[in-house]
Amino acid sequence: MSVRATARITAALDGRGVTSLPVLRGDGPLALRRTRATTGSGTRGTVVGAMSAPLGGDRLAIETRVGDRARLTVDCAAATVALPGLGGEPATYGIELSAGERAELRWLPEQLVSAHGSVLHMTTRVQLAATARLVLREEQILGRHGEGTGTLVSHLTVHLTVHRAGRPLIDQQLAYGPGAPGGWGGAAVLGGHRAVGQLLVVEPAFDEKRPDARLLGETAVLTPLAGPAVLVTAVAPDARLLRGVLDQALDELLGAQEE
């Protein structure tokens, strides 16, 4: 039997200027916990899987809103594994994120593993105020150890409101596995690698000076976008090496802002 579940997180400043979580409500397999923050006045919420999901036919969603000047990090306790269902239906996973003026959102989930036989359509939509900051990481692992990948379609859209007249900062779709356009595993795309990820950093200061486009090692690239943002795209043989590349890129980008 398929599951329909929506989890909601709202972060806002309280009367002391500290970020609180007036809404932290999990649903079905998407349990939420407040966990110890690692930065100043910010707070952190962690997604804790309460059951195996998404299975074929499941409809899951997470809605996260960060109010003006609030600071929130959202992470996960473990990787998410997309599994096949009994009826062969695709599962969907929708993520809706928004951040207000001078807000900061760090969306740092663990890896999404596309198990053999699964079909998952994942959509991430982000709305940012002109002065909002965003760090968004996505990592996909194509198949568990010793098996082929399932079908994974991932769509990411980020809009900057007002400052960019509501036009997209980035709008892209990636597809892998059976049924995806041919060539996704070839030399021009994954080159035989099983782990693929991206890191998007939106920083208002990039309006004045953005990092230059460059290679990061042999299998990653940093690309400035047409707006105050950069995108790091990487492939790797496994999840550990992929995370290392993205973590190093994030440290460099954040370190450059602190100098």
UniProtKB/TrEMBL annotation:
Assigned keywords, A-Z: Chaperone, Cytoplasm, Nickel insertion
Molecular-function GO term, any one: nickel cation binding
Cellular location(s): Cytoplasm
Gene Ontology cellular-component annotations: cytoplasm
InterPro entries: UreD
Principal location listed in the UniProt entry: cytoplasm
Pfam families registered for this protein in UniProt: UreD (PF01774)
Top-level taxonomic group: Bacteria
Signal sequence bounds: none
Assembly, per entry: UreD, UreF and UreG form a complex that acts as a GTP-hydrolysis-dependent molecular chaperone, activating the urease apoprotein by helping to assemble the nickel containing metallocenter of UreC. The UreE protein probably delivers the nickel.
Entry function: Required for maturation of urease via the functional incorporation of the urease nickel metallocenter.
Similarity-based family: Belongs to the UreD family.
Protein name (database record): Urease accessory protein UreD
Species annotation: Streptomyces atratus
Gene expressing this chain: ureD
